[in-house]
Amino acid sequence: MIKNKPYYTVFVYLVSISFCYAQQTDTLRSILNNHLKPTGKKPVHSIQVYISKGDTVFNAAVGYADGRKEIANRNNQFKIASITKTMTAVVILQMQEEGKLDITDRVATYLNDVKYARVNELHYFNNQPYGHTITIQQLLQHTSGAADIFTDAAVRFYINLYFNKKQIWNPEKLMNRYYKYRLNKDAHFTPDSGYYYSDVNYFLLGLIIEKLSGQTLAQQFRTRIFEPLQMQNTYFEYYEPAKGNGKMAHSFLGKRNITKTLNTSYDWAGGGVVSTTSDLAIFLNGLFEHKLYKRSATLEAMTTMLPHTLKSGRINYYGLGLYQYQFNGDIYYGHGGFWGSLIAYCPSKKITFCGNINQVNPPFKTYQFIETLLGKF
User: How far apart are CA 199 and CA 193, in angstroms?
Assistant: First the structure.
C-alpha cells in the first residue's frame, strides 16, 4: 500500500510531463538537425529557434554559427533585417500616441526641409508628381507606390556593393542613390491604390522619427524599445556600438559569408538591427502584452490587415509594420527578414515563434519547415 497517495500522484504526473517534454524537445531538435545542409550551393550551416506557449519553451540552436567550427548557440546574435521595420513602425505609433504626429498626415509636413529627401520629387506616376500627397500611413503599409532601391535597381545597387563592400551608408547616401537611379520616376501606382514592398517607405519613416525626436533612430530604438524591454543582446548595427554577448551567427547568401564580407549599413530603418531569438521573443511578447503602447487601439490598428493580390496570385496581408501569416490554420502576426529570420505571434493560442536560418535561400520550403515545428510543439 502506497502512503501519501496524493503526493505520489503528483510525482507521477510531474514525471510524465517531464518525459513528454523531453520527447517533444528531442523531436524538435531532430527536425532542426534534419534541415542542416552544410554542403551544396545553398548551405544551411546553423538554425536557431525559439517557441513558447505559457511556461513551455523550446529554445535551441544546431550547426555551426560561422559555417566552419563555432558550434551554434541559442544565444547567438544575427542580422534580423526587415524585422527592424516592425520596430520602426512601433516608434511611429508611439509618437502618434504622444501627439507628435498623426499617421494620416502627409510626409511632406515633416520632411519638406530635409533637402536630400526631396519629398515633392519623391514619386512620379505617368509623369505626374504625387510625392507631396503621400501619408505616413501609406509608408507604414507599403501603399505609397514608391519604387524600391533594392529590387527596382537591384543590378546597379548590388554591383556598387560588390565593388564597395565596406562602404558605410547613412540616410542621405541612401536617398541620393534613390534619385541617382531615377527611381522617383518609376513609381508603381498612385498612392493608396495598391501594394508594393519598398524599403524607401521605411527610410522616410526613419527620417520622420529623427526629425521629431532630435535624436538618431538608434537612440530612439534604445530608449523606446530595447531598454524598457531589457533586450540586452540587441543593437542597431553600424549606427551604435555593439551590445550583448558578441557571438554572431553568420548570414550566408549562397556560399558567400555576408557577415564577414559585406557592410550592411544600407538596411538602416528598413532592416539594420542585430538581435537573438530570445530578445526577439521579448520584443514580440512585449508588443502583444501591451508593454509598448498606452492604448489597446494602437495595437488593433497595427494588426488591421489589408489584403493585396500579388502578381503570383497569392493574397498578401500587411498592416502597420506587420504581416499576417497562417500556420496550421492559426493566424499569426509578425515579420520576416531577408537574411533568414522570422518572428510570429498567435494571439488566439499565445504562441510565440522566433527563428533564424543562416541562409537567404535555403534548399527547402521555409513555410513548411515552420509549420512542421509548430505542429510538433
Answer: 18
Region label for 63, one of left (φ > 0), alpha (ψ between -120 and 50) or beta (otherwise) = left
Q: What is residue 5's predicted lDDT score, i.e. its pLDDT? A: 56
Q: Give 277: exposed, middle or buried? Use CB within 10 Å, 0-12, 13-18, 19+.
A: buried
Which pLDDT value is given to residue 212? 98
| pLDDT number for residue 15 | 47
Q: What is the distance in angstroms between the CA of the first residue and the CA of the last residue of the chain?
A: 38
**Predicted local confidence at residue 6, as pLDDT:** 56
Residue 23 has a pLDDT of 84
Q: DSSP H helical segments within 244-295, as ranges?
A: 258-261, 268-271, 277-288
Specify whether the CB–CB gap between 262 and 161 falls below 8 A.
yes
What is the rounded CA–CA span in Å between residue 190 and residue 129?
9
pLDDT beneath 50, residues of the chain:
1-2, 10-15, 17
Check residue 14 and give its pLDDT: 43
Which contacts (CB < 8 Å, 24+ apart) does range 235-243 have?
Answer: 235/273, 235/274, 236/272, 236/273, 236/274, 237/79, 237/264, 237/265, 237/272, 237/273, 237/274, 238/168, 238/169, 238/263, 238/264, 238/265, 238/272, 239/265, 239/268, 239/272, 240/216, 242/274
Show the beta-strand stretches assigned E in 176-304.
Answer: 235-236, 252-253, 256-257, 273-275
- In the structure grid, which three cell numbers stand for residue 369, read together? 519547415
pLDDT in tens, 90-134: 999 999 999 999 999 999 999 999 999 999 999 999 999 999 999
CB 325 within 8 A of CB 344: yes
Q: Is 236:272 a contact under the CB 8 Å cutoff?
A: yes
Check residue 318 and report its DSSP letter. E
Residue 176, helix vs strand vs coil? helix
